[in-house]
């Protein structure tokens, strides 16, 4: 083999080895950077998060709707300090829905999803603005997306009075779908018949008197999309 | 005309199971089995995709809306749910049309609400199918579900989505074995639903008589 060719091949081989090593190092740095950014994002959210618990909150029994098996949801009684202000109250129950999930199997919303904003319009329209994680972290599928929507809607309608319908935004924007299937361009009607995802056994459960307004007529009413 | 819609495709893998199982591949196989079953029964069939492409929701709806007397069937596989079961869905609008559709001339159909005149037919088909699915795939619900499934909203024809559970199954052969019974069940349900169905577009007095087009279409 000619000497020139040998030298060229050697240089090429060295270059390839250096390139591979550099790529691996670059990949590791990118992974570390991504982890750091996530942590910073979480820390920023924690800092900017409005204080939703106040001294005047009253500890009440709430109904939080988590998954009950692979394709249903059911209410669980949870004692929570709740505000009299409906907006703060809504934030409190949605936070509980995300953060106080009893077990991984009962989770309906991604653990890193955050409620960025919540508003109630004069006509009873509730606007819930979630972080991107709600969209990216919800398992793809009609049934899993329905469970996510149902758990939000039913938790709200059972604990916050005066809500008529629900609009879900993702990071302040209207999204086409939640995770590829369920239509988010419209509204979800609250206090209506709909998906039937609530377990029959939980529908039959006697409801204990609760200080929470609007709990009496909505124990089994799943949401339905409203356009 | 039967319009079969294998969901997802291209860069949209859909649900992902263990061992690199992608929903987009499974539903394409199911769709081809379903097409063969319908063709065996003498139906004309068109698919919204027959490769690893990912048509938009509007393109998928437009495929169905190009035909009169079509039936649109979207095939999905979930990432959760009771393994070995199947659910049928129809679209649900639960309130009167919004201001846009109210302002539209009577002879036009609002693209975003093209499914509205067909809700009854869609729900009837979904109900018939769900009863059949419950018999074929034990553990499935006995009633269909009406919910806002995006893919169905702009379809001007009876339209349903079928979702099997799930890609999380440890043994991939179970999913593969569901394809043939699924195809037979869907085809049989369509046959059962046809006698009672009259296309609203066949009535010229009905606003749905006009074939809808997406905004900006020529």
Describe this structure in words.
The complex is a heterodimer of chains A (227) and B (218). By secondary structure, chain A is α+β, with helices and mostly antiparallel strands. Chain A folds into two domains: 1-48; 58-226, no CATH class. Chain A is 39% helix and 19% strand. Chain A contains five helices and seven strands. Chain A has helices spanning 3-48, 86-99, 132-137, 142-159, 200-203, and strands at residues 58-67, 73-82, 115-120, 125-130, 165-170, 187-189, 224-226. In chain A, the strands form two sheets. Chain A has a five-stranded mixed sheet. In chain A, strands 1-2 form a two-stranded antiparallel ribbon. In chain A, strand 3 and strand 4 (125-130) form a beta hairpin. In chain A, helix 2 packs across helix 4 (142-159). Residues 200-222 of chain A have low confidence and may be disordered. With 218 residues, chain B is α/β, with parallel strands linked by helices. Chain B has a single domain (2-209), classed as Aminopeptidase. Helix content of chain B is 33%, strand content 13%. Chain B has helices at residues 23-40, 57-65, 99-103, 119-136, 172-193; strands at 2-6, 45-47, 71-77, 86-90, 145-146, 159-164. A six-stranded mixed sheet of chain B has the order 2-1-3-6-4-5, sandwiched between helices. In chain B, helix 1 links the parallel strand 1 (2-6) and strand 2 (45-47). In chain B, helix 1 packs across helix 5 (172-193) and helix 4 packs across helix 5 (172-193). The interface between A and B is medium-sized, with 30 and 40 residues.
- State the shape of chain B: globular
For the largest interface, the chains and their residue counts are: A-B, 30 and 40 residues
* Number of E strands of chain B: 6
Structural class based on helices, strands and sheet pairing of chain A: alpha+beta
Beta-strand percentage range of chain A: 15-25%
CATH class placement of chain B: Alpha Beta
Order of helices and strands of chain A: HEEHEEHHEEHE
Counting helices, strands and paired strands, the structural category of chain B is alpha/beta
Strand runs of chain A, count: 7
CATH level 4 superfamily of chain B: Zn-dependent exopeptidases
Per CATH, what is the topology of chain B? Aminopeptidase
Q: What percentage of the residues of chain B does DSSP assign to strands (E)?
A: 5-15%
What's the alpha carbon Rg of chain B, rounded to whole Å?
17 Å
Distance between the first and last residues' Cα of chain A: 76 Å
**Rg measurement of chain A, Å:** 24 Å
Number of helical segments of chain A? Answer: 5
Number of domains of chain B: 1
